[in-house]
Every structure is written in structure tokens, then in C-alpha cells.
Design brief:
It contains 5 helices and 4 strands; from the N terminus they run E-E-E-H-H-E-H-H-H. It is an alpha+beta fold and 141 residues long. It folds into 2 domains: 100 residues, 2-Layer Sandwich (Double Stranded RNA Binding Domain); 36 residues, no CATH class. The chain starts with a strand and ends with a helix. The model has no long low-confidence stretch (mean pLDDT 91).
Amino acid sequence: MLSMYPACFCKEDTGYSVFFPDLNWLSTCGSDLEEAMAMAIDCLAGYLYDCEKDGETIPTASEIDSLHIEEQLKEIYEDSPIPPHFVNIVSVDVDSYAKEHFEKSVKKTLSIPAWLNKAAIERGINFSQTLQEALLAKIQS
């Protein structure tokens, strides 16, 4: 299912900043407009994917012409002038994007001692699951 949210693209000296007003001003950036759009798609997909995965309520997207973003931009840019900006719809099929970028499995080849391989097989140990659990424990510590 296609998810579509308005995003504010602000032209900066170093590229573009992107803000999603409906998603607590979730933000990303890119060195040019093409990269900013790619990053916006990735950012939107990741946010919506995490909301779905965590059972959180996903905010409703605003109509693009109902947004009044100048006040929020004044807060973001504080004493600096608000840069040139425009609002555009960013869309992504979260399920398809997640399968390709967040859930896609990769094959790894590894070597273990023969005795350890034999013992694990005899005990019906799932090698992939065990490696995933061990890697998660390592990166979370």
C-alpha cells in the first residue's frame, strides 16, 4: 500500500533539508535534490515501518494545501532567515521498501571447526538463528 506524506524541502548552502510536518517534524537531508528525495523516501519508510512494527498509531497525512509551515520553520531556523523552500508529496510502499531494505536477508559464508558443526547438527541448532542472536547480543552490548 502506498503511503504519501507532505514534506518541506529547504534549500541550504550544503544541499536540502527535508522535514515532515505530520510526523513530529521528522527530518533528513541530501546534498542535492535527488539525494534529498531518496533520503526522504528512506526516512519516511523507516518511520512508518517502525510505527507498524511497534504497534504505534500512524499519524494521518495532511492535505498539502492545508499546511502552514512558516511558523514551524521560524522556530527551526531561529534567528536565521528561512531559506527558500517548497512542499512536495513523498510516497513509498512501506512493505515493498522494507522487504528490500530492512528485512532482506544476505547470505554469509563462515568457517567453524568440524567438531562444533557436528555437535550443533546433532542438537538440531539453527545456525542462522544462532548467528543472528549472537550478533544482536554483540551490537546491543
